[in-house]
User: Fold these one by one.
Assistant:
Number 1:
Amino acid sequence: MVKYKLDIQKNTLSWEKTHYKECDKIDCKNKGEFKAPKSRVNLNEYYFFCLNHVKEYNKSWDFYKGLSVNQIEKSMREDTIWNRPSWPLKGNPYKVIEQINDFFINEIPNLDIDDNNKNYFKNKFLDEALTKEENKALNILNLKLPLDLNKIKKNYKKLVKIFHPDVNGNNKKAEEIFKEINESYKLLLKKLI
């Protein structure tokens, strides 16, 4: 059986180009593969230099050449916002200032920040005296004041894994400790919530 080969024309791909741009420096025949901007005003127009000439060009090029001190400072300040203008969210800056003033005049007195914080930061364990059972529950769960719900749950889970009857078989002492842990956990949750 005879194999038939198709005569396929080979296409050259864009990265396989054989011609190249010469260095823009006068009397240089090297490949110009490095771009350098032509001026501060036309940053999108480039010279193409070889490595040696682009180094030379970069050493001598000054972006701020011909600008006064005030113009340089203005340019640097605009660079912090990427040379894009910025506006207040609702348009007119005077309206924004009026909104802020209205907020401070009308809304701040209504917030009563101290009253809200008293209830929010209140910790029942610190504000109330503990009974003997609650102190015993703290000792059983290896906890110390101040407490929060996450601490109680974390220690409870750790102790349950150690003293659970499935882990300890028929050990009566471990079973009694397990019951005490559960009772202590329930007592502390009631006290906290």
Note: The CA atoms of residues 77 and 83 lie 9 Å apart.
Number 2:
Amino acid sequence: MRKELKAQVVENIAAQLKETPNFYVTDIAGLNAEQTTHLRRACFEAGIKLTVVKNTLFEHVIKEMGEEIQLIIPALKGNSAIMYTEAANAPAKLIKKLQKEGLPKPVLKAAYVQECAFVGADKLEELAAIKSKEELIGDIIGLLQSPMRNVISALQGNAGGKIAGLVKAIEEKKN
């Protein structure tokens, strides 16, 4: 590969990492054409960009970034495919789904999600459990609404009459 072409590939990888900082390094070697097509289609439907990269070029880009991301460098051995994603857990869920369908690969090598490095296939469950920003916001809203719902239901139920009576009794004592 010519030096100019390498520089262009490195630039493209760096731009992609800036655009979508969450990525998974996977091994997809050995898949036949049908399995590869199925994987690419599943990635497209899940909003995941799948690219095959040369480890040395990817490593060159990573070395220019922070310390945490450099923890995935040892995983860059053999064939590597990168899954770029906006949703932190989407590739992990997709890998689990494909494994249930009997597809032997992709196999997780490492991931860099929400500014944390995960190395090894054993981290797949942990990565699949990560909640998206929207899920976290929904959980927080639900937690904030819960006490209010309890107060409203108490006021609407039998306790509402008792509370109203207590408030009336307190007002009468003031007067």
Note: The chain has two domains: 3-130, 134-174.
Number 3:
Amino acid sequence: MAILAAISYLLKSQIEATQLKRIIERLTADSRVAEVIVTDVKCNPRTKQTSTTIKFLEYDTKLRPLEPKYFTFSGNIIQFQSMVIRFDDFYVKKGHPLKGKSAYLFMKAFRLTDNGAETFEITKINEIPFGYEAAEVKNNFERKLWKKFWEYALNPEKASKAGIKNVQLEAPGTKFVPGMIYTIKIEHDGGLRIDAKPVTPILKNEKIKF
């Protein structure tokens, strides 16, 4: 009996350790949500002003690419305004199909200038971004969440009842240059960040048609 009890304890400990590992992985994991590359840089010989065109490719929840968007700015320090919803750690730990990681809504791509800002709309307020719907969730939570987006953002009491830790605007940005791939990621228990790495050497100086 003592041996069986010891085995049972070890198995239980292993299961608990595995569950703990999964919880930690969920809390510290991140997901790729978009990629950006510079497709063109032009210099106006008269004004000496340089313009930068970027390709913005967003991914849905299954990492399938959506229709790419192209934006041209008068400079190359560009930001992405997003609304980020952080859910309670309880849902992240459980790997909830909808609330198991921070949610996001890309709203605008913009560049600040001395005269204001150059802005391109990505998603209209209160819309569910195409490709973001959680098909396995058969309830009205997601629809109500996006419909009352601003209400949740401005009313902490209602947000708390919906299992939301907080909602806030974020605008990660960086300097975009040719020859680099910029990946926008969302942390499961946090916000957005931009990672950058050089384009693989085989693609350098190549114009590939698909």
Note: The radius of gyration is 22 Å.
Number 4:
Amino acid sequence: MLSFNQDLFLAINAFAGHSRVQDLLGIVLAEGLPYLFIAVEVWLYFFAKRKEEALLAFYASLLGLGLNQLIGLAYFHPRPFMDHLGALLIPHGPENSFPSDHTTFMASIALTLLFCPSTRRLGDWMLLFAVIGGLARVYIGVHYPLDILGSLVVSLASAGIVVALAPRLKPLNAFVYRIEDRIFHN
């Protein structure tokens, strides 16, 4: 499995460092796509009148990132550059690679939106962007492909848990709405 992971990483990362435009696109996708997800969350909550869906996606992203931290306590996997593999396009600290926090953040939001009937179509698109962002993380040399796959599994679990618990989260949502009301309507 290690050899497969490294071979697949090298196949994706092999294109890095040959074209400034392509490398810039890879960096923008890898580093910038999470901001698109934040913008979508803000749009859903404040403008699209999909507050519950936005909150559920937010909760799922928090749960997913929390699960990543627990996984990181139990399992350490070096990043590709720590194994002296491939081209690294951005500076990055030598820390745990598995699973990818960026991808977990994006995919948790996307999958939650996909599971909610009112945002299913948007969720389809966001999941595509999450996968593209994850692959861009491989392209720029900071993650292995199985880090991205692991993130998708964590995200699926976190989104599934949050959507299943949605009725029980209504009091928490009501608390958030009260805070919003105090901030914006006083």
Note: The mean pLDDT is 96.
